[in-house]
Write a structure and sequence with these properties.
alpha+beta; FAD/NAD(P)-binding domain; five-stranded parallel β-sheet; 22 helices
Length: about 700
């Protein structure tokens, strides 16, 4: 477990693919693509039925090269002509297009070339256009240059500062903790191993993040994996199955084909039962999607007569991955928004890992860019109060140190739960700020588990479909910095982890050992022939003699308030970046933007906040998307003023600042509960249990 990044060993071991995927069809206009999708779905359904007749092996079979070569071309022809065309019968059963069963030792470890269609989308072009607009401001010497103070050094605050510096403004970031990144922050343990706040994956459908990587010249730090989704088979422990995206088939046909060719998770009739629910989304788009915010995934599913197995086979995985909660608690607008983004971009669901820890490999590069352009990024500098003038505008920031920070413009890039504790009393009765009371972050736990042996090497993100786990990855295989040929390091998302997230158990207040024992039980089920019986972990007591892998060490990272809880009815309360205060702007992935609570959402929100300030400085009218109507229920409220509570704890106590940390003391647990009483037990009880 060396602190030295084994990049050279990784590069020597891995076969990096540089050849471009087959390009059969160009990116299609949406109004032409959806009719093509509907026509090809009938053809794909026929193909699925045909393949199930000719391919009935119980175990994976070798891929038939003829089918791989011909099927995509014939499917592409069906998409353009509307006439289904069946591929020639294979010489042997094939899983090339079928949703294939895999085991870890069958996978090849390789990174793939940058997906060709990522930048060939309207969303990417819009991201690049906004970047160009802000850079043009920086070239215009006649525009006034503003001094901007930004509270929060997560992805949103850094993006805001980056684009303000591009526009020629002087941006200073004030981060309370001694590490940048917020929800993507990381730190090293005593062995030099990196502990990350969360398991973070980059998607092709992250246009503003991809645009940012291009502008920072760090696209080579993205390790793209094969274009597929991998699911653990609950009924077949130790085995996995995939949605395979055929190269050369454009969106949305590739997504439909990947699902229709699946005969392991859903039957053909169950897939077809989903069509009536999805057709309104395809026809009406975002207008229909926004109307579903009042329904949970489960309610939406039953309203439209979708089969119950959709919940267990698909929605549970999606809900946990998108918002760390179960589908009976998640607003359907989140799932439909994600599907709408991914469906419309050919490489939207292709995934990439960053090649190392985010503070070094991303945040440090942003910091360098900001400071090169005249800005400043400060860590270990907590803000104590936002001080206002008589007219409600910001007078200055008061730091915990007693220092006063004066600027022309101020930005909050704090998480919603932290921001609510800083809202000045003068603002607390304003409907714009009062709507924030309707939003709160969701708890989540991230685990790191080092084993003494290499487990099944799936070089990708895996959806566990487990009651306790969301997604996981063997970072010793997927990531250059953590590369290890002899031992596995699993990073896992433990969710839902609290009644606040809809769970039955408050795992946030459990000891690390209790959390790890529960996880070992899940891993024993996922890897039945590999995890050893270990007296230290009672949940493994039934493991057979085949299992030999034992846990060497672990880290448990709690984030009491992560992305905003996207429960039904909350989306409409997300505030715009433009506020009623003429020198104050909001950022953060919880503010109104079209990419949900995510790295993409955080980056876009920071960029939009920068645009608000640049438009104001240049005397330009605000954009329509920079404003948002406030709900009548909020507008009509009669509110009493509230004094800001502030946030307590030192800069080492990450939880006090809205990100994650390891709880190893009574004081740390006390600070978590002091700032957020709903989270759990007081420290004395916690230590007694330990």
């Amino acid at each position: 477990m060396s602190a030295e990044p084994p990049r050279a060993a990784y590069a020597a071991h891995n076969d990096v693919q540089f050849e471009a995927p087959l390009q059969l069809l160009p990116q299609q206009p949406r109004n032409l693509v959806w009719p093509a999708l509907l026509s090809v779905m009938a053809g794909a359904a026929a193909v699925a039925a045909w393949m199930m007749r000719v391919s009935t092996p119980a175990r994976p079979q070798p891929i038939d090269v003829d089918l791989v070569d011909t099927a995509p071309k014939q499917m592409a022809m069906a998409a353009t002509t509307g006439v289904p065309s069946l591929p020639t019968a294979p010489k042997r059963p094939s899983t090339a297009l079928n949703m294939k069963m895999i085991t870890g030792d069958e996978t090849q470890q390789k990174d793939y070339a940058y997906p060709k269609q990522v930048k060939n989308t309207d969303n990417y072009r819009n991201a690049a256009a906004l970047s160009a607009k802000l850079k043009d401001d920086g070239k215009n010497a006649g525009l006034p240059k503003k001094k901007v103070a930004i509270i929060g050094g997560g992805l949103s605050g850094l993006a805001c500062a980056k684009y303000l510096s591009d526009a020629g403004h002087e941006a200073t970031v004030y981060e309370a903790r001694n590490v940048l990144g917020g929800k993507v922050s990381a730190w090293q343990d005593e062995d030099g191993d990196w502990i990350e706040t969360g398991l973070h994956i980059f998607f092709g459908a992250y246009p503003n993040v991809m645009n940012l990587f291009e502008e920072l010249d760090i696209e080579d730090r993205l390790q793209w994996k094969i274009h597929k989704m991998i699911f653990a088979m609950q009924e077949l422990p130790g085995e996995f199955t995939t949605f395979d995206f055929v190269p050369g088939i454009p969106a949305p046909l590739n997504f439909a084909l990947a699902i229709l060719m699946n005969d392991k998770m859903l039957t053909l009739s169950e897939k077809l039962q989903c069509l009536p629910a999805l057709l309104p989304m395809l026809i009406e788009g975002q207008e229909f999607i926004d109307k579903q915010d009042e329904l949970s995934c489960l309610e939406f599913m039953r309203k439209y007569g979708m089969p119950e197995r959709i919940n267990t086979e698909v929605f549970i995985s999606m809900a946990k991955a998108l918002d760390f909660i179960d589908p009976d608690k998640l607003s359907m607008v989140v799932v439909l928004t994600a599907m709408n983004r991914f469906l419309n971009e050919t490489d939207g669901l292709q995934m990439a890992f960053l090649d190392g820890n985010q503070p070094d490999r991303l945040c440090a590069v942003e910091k360098e860019h900001i400071e090169k352009n005249g800005g400043t990024v400060k860590t270990g500098t907590p803000v104590a109060e936002i001080v206002t003038n008589d007219d409600g505008t910001v007078k200055h920031l008061l730091l915990r140190s007693g220092e006063i920070v004066e600027a022309d413009e101020y930005v909050s890039a704090m998480p919603v739960d932290v921001f609510k504790r800083f809202i000045p009393e003068a603002w607390s009765t304003m409907p714009y700020f009062r709507q924030c009371d309707e939003l709160e972050g969701i708890p989540v736990i991230n685990l790191h588990m080092w084993f003494d042996k290499k487990l099944k090497q799936v070089d990708h993100l895996c959806f566990s479909r487990s009651p306790l786990l969301s997604v996981y990855a063997d970072m010793s295989t997927t990531c250059k910095e953590y590369w290890d040929t002899e031992k596995s390091m699993l990073e896992l998302v433990f969710a839902p982890c609290s009644p606040l997230a809809g769970g039955n158990v408050n795992w946030m207040s459990k000891t690390d050992e209790e959390i790890i024992d529960a996880t070992m039980g899940e891993l024993a089920r996922l890897f039945p022939l590999e995890i050893a019986a270990d007296d230290k972990w009672p949940s493994t007591k039934n493991q057979g003699p085949e299992g030999t892998a034992k846990l060497l060490k672990y880290a448990v990272v709690r984030t009491p308030r992560s992305v905003y809880a996207a429960i039904p009815g909350r989306n409409k309360f997300r505030p715009a970046q433009l506020t009623p205060i003429k020198n104050f702007t909001l950022a953060g992935d919880w503010t109104a933007q079209k990419f949900l609570g995510s790295m993409e959402g955080a980056t876009l929100a920071g960029k939009l906040a920068a645009e608000v300030i640049c438009d104001r400085a240049a005397g330009r009218p605000y954009q329509d998307y920079q404003t948002r109507a406030i709900q009548a229920s909020i507008q009509m409220g009669d509110y009493e003023p509230k004094k800001p509570l502030g946030v307590h704890g030192d800069i080492e106590n990450a939880i006090a600042w809205g990100a994650g940390m390891e709880i190893k003391s009574k004081g740390a647990m006390d600070k978590m509960v002091e700032n957020d009483p709903a989270q759990g037990v007081k420290g004395a009880e916690y230590v007694a249990r330990v």
